[in-house]
Amino acid sequence: MRLEGVIRDGRSLLLLLVACTALFAVPRPAPCEENPARDHFERGIILYKAGDYEGALEHFLISNTLRPHYQTAYNIAMCHSQLGEKAQAANELAKILVLEGEEMDHATSKKILGKLELLKAALGYLVVDADTMGSTVMVDGTIVGTTPLGRGVYVEPGTHSLTVMGLGGGAWSAAVTVGAGENQQGNVGVKGAQHQSGEQDGGHA
């Protein structure tokens, strides 16, 4: 009886050792890898909730540069909106729908479109049609893209400076006035500006 008890105890000890060995064999979870984009995103969320929209915008911009994502771009748009920068917010939302529309589910796309509809009612819409490809388009000194843009640019109601710079160095500039809810077409003749620029030894027309 004692021998059987020893055998049972020995088997129990052996099973216990096997169990302990199995537990130690399970790999420990690796430490979290550094993710600066996520860190800036989360910091932006905290600052946004605290009402620091400028600080939040800074972090969201960094996050989106490190790892572009439509959710981050949407947060950027909301920061612009809270700061009273309605045109920037609308342009950011429009860009999301153009570039990321196929990646989003219907509910998300509808949400972004709804926000855009609320913003654009108080904004003007400037459409640029240039006679050259790859020309740089600037509105009020800020680059908004290259031709063909594929979409218009939302602007605050009023008069704005529209400049298109061709690859050959020529530039076309004009003052364009747009009202709230209005669409304004900017037909740009960059080729003529390039020709005139060449005659003036590289000076802008």
Order of helices and strands: HHHHHHEEEEEEEH
Structural class: alpha+beta
Radius of gyration: 29 Å
- Quote the average pLDDT: 77
Overall geometric form: globular
Characterize the quaternary organization of these chains: single chain
Low-confidence stretches: 1-10, 13-31, 190-205
**Could you tell me the strand content as a percent range?**
15-25%
Q: Going across the biggest sheet, name each strand in turn.
A: 3-2-5-6
Question: What is the total tally of β strands?
Answer: 7
Q: Can you count the helices?
A: 7
Helix content: 40-55%
Describe the sheet with the most strands.
Answer: 4 strands, antiparallel
Through-space gap between termini: 110 Å
Could you write a compact summary of the structure shown?
The protein is an alpha+beta fold and 205 residues long. The chain is built from 7 helices and 7 strands, in the order H-H-H-H-H-H-E-E-E-E-E-E-E-H. A hairpin with a 5-residue loop joins strand 5 and strand 6.
